[in-house]
Amino acid sequence: MFEEIEKANPKAKHVYVIADNAKYYRSKEVNEYLTMSKIKVIFLPPYSPNLNLIERVWKFFKYKVIRGKYYDRFDKFKDAVHEFFENITCYKEELNRLLTDKFHIEVVNDT
Length: 111
Description:
mainly alpha; elongated; 111 residues; single chain
């Protein structure tokens, strides 16, 4: 992944990657690669899922697709998941409010 990021940014002096604390980011192979790379990894503090944007997206997804809903068949659940992602632009305003640095004061409305 880091190689692809570097290829996509050939003119950049440094490329900053914000990462959670997954073990694979701290592996020997990754650390060896990063010593000769222009990629600089910035680690999020441990146990801080609100700082990780994808965690906020998953929480929003669960709110819209799972919360208060019952799917009696897997294919109905699967269709709901696909519909959410195929129409994610419908949630643009809500996601723009949610994916900010003011995450602690944002509320997801089910409107």
